[in-house]
Amino acid sequence: MQIVRKIRSPIVCIAIPAEVIEIKEGNIGVVDYGDLQQEIRLDLVDVEVGEFVLIHVGFAIQKMSREEGLETRNLFREVYSAMEQKPPVTL
Questions:
Q1: Whole-model pTM?
Q2: Which domains does the chain have, with CATH numbers?
Q3: Contact in structure between 34 and 74 (CB atoms under 8 Å)
Q4: Coil, strand or helix at 28
Q5: 48 phi and psi, to 5 degrees?
Q6: Helix, coil or strand: residue 75
Q7: CB of 44 within 8 A of CB of 59?
Q8: What confidence category does residue 7 fall into, taking pLDDT thresholds of 50, 70 and 90?
Q9: Among 1-10, 22-31, 80-89, whose mean pLDDT is lowest?
Q10: Taking CA 88 as the corner, what is the angle to CA 84 and CA 91, rounded to the nearest 5 degrees?
Q11: How far is CA 81 from the centre of its chain?
Q12: Exposure string over 17-52, b if 16+ CB within 10 A, otherwise e
């Protein structure tokens, strides 16, 4: 008897840092990702305008310091920039 094991790719979920620029009624916030603004839900955190949060699937899930938010945003930009410069893989 042979045992076959399936290898699955790991699923990675990413939370993106953003600055809260407006708070509306109903736990709705408007955040700025640096070059994109979006409405998100604020049900899980207590934040004020000007604070940074991590966004996952449309929800602010955690507060973070301004320094940490800006640093993480810059890391994302560096990674995306490097991905754009990499030549496509051909099979």
A1: 0.76
A2: 16-83 (2.30.30.140)
A3: no
A4: strand
A5: -125, 160
A6: helix
A7: yes
A8: low
A9: 1-10
A10: 160
A11: 16
A12: bbbbeeeeeeeebbbeeeeeeeebbbeebebeeebb
